[in-house]
C-alpha cells in the first residue's frame, strides 16, 4: 500500500522580511515607508487505512498577512500596522459505522489593526505625544465540538466576528529608539469590548461574556495602555529576523488591577532567497475572556516553510 506524508505547498506572495519601500516627496518634505507580506501555507498528510501505527489524513491551510504604512512629515508621524492570521485544518475521520467524513476546524483566526498619530517634541525628536487606536477581533465563527450518536461532530458556536471584539483608544507618550524599537505609554486609555452576536449568550448559557452584559453589546473600561515592540535582523547577511510586539492594558477601576496582555512574536530563518522557515505566536492573557477556573492564557501559533517574493 502507498503511504505518503508530504508537504505539498507552502507558498504565497511573501518573504520572511517584507521589504520597506521609501517614498520621498521633496516638495512637501514628507516620507512614506511601507511594506507587506502575504503568506499562504498548505500541507497534506495521508496514510493507508491499515497503517499499523495509527494515523489521520488531514489538510491544513493557513494565511498570514503583515502590512505597514508609515508617514513622516517634519514633526508629524502616522504609523499603521495590519496583521491577519487565518487557518483551517480538515481531518478525515470515521463515524461508528465506518463511514468517512471531513471534520473542519479553525487553527488560528485573528485580525489586528493599529494606527497612531504622533507629534514629536522639538527638543527631543525621539519622544512624541500620540493618540492611537488598535482594533482586534476574529473573522470567522468559533465552535466547541462534541459527538452525536453516530460519532460525527456536533458544533456549538461560542464566538464570532466582533463577539468578542476589542478596541483601545489611547493618549500618551511614545519613545522611539535605535530606529526599529518603540515604547508607548497611554496614560488615558478607553478599552471597549464588544459582543454583537446576542445568540452566544443562549449558546453558552451565560449572562455575561467578556464583561459585556446580555443585551448591552459593549463594555467600557478606563485604564493605562503599555505598548512596545520592534524588529531585529541577525547574521552577516540578515538571514534571521525576530519581531516582537506587546500590548498591555491596566484598568483603573479594578482592584487589585490585573494587566491584560497580548504578545505577538515572529521568527524567520531564510534558507534561500525565496524559501524560509517561519514561526508566528499570538499569546493573550485576559481573565475576562476565560470562564471561571480556566487558564487565562490563550496561545495560537503557526510553524512552517514559506516560499515567496517581495511586492
Overall description:
The structure is a single chain. With 311 residues, the protein is mostly beta strands. It has one domain (4-307). 2% of the residues lie in helices and 66% in strands. The protein has 1 helix and 18 strands. The protein has one helix at 199-204, and strands at residues 4-11, 21-25, 30-46, 58-73, 76-94, 100-120, 127-137, 142-147, 153-159, 163-177, 181-195, 208-209, 212-213, 218-234, 240-251, 260-270, 275-285, 297-307. Strands 1, 2, 3, 4, 5, 6, 7, 10, 11, 14, 15, 16, 17 and 18 form a 14-stranded antiparallel sheet that branches. Strands 8-9 form a two-stranded antiparallel ribbon. The relative contact order is 0.14. Mean pLDDT is 83; it is low at 1-18.
Structural class, by secondary structure, is mainly beta
Strand content: over 45%
Considering DSSP H and I runs of 4 or more, what fraction of the residues is helical?
under 10%
Number of domains: 1
Envelope shape: flat
Pick out the low-confidence regions. Answer: 1-18
Distance between the termini: 44 Å
Q: How many strands, what sense, and barrel or not for the largest sheet?
A: 14 strands, antiparallel
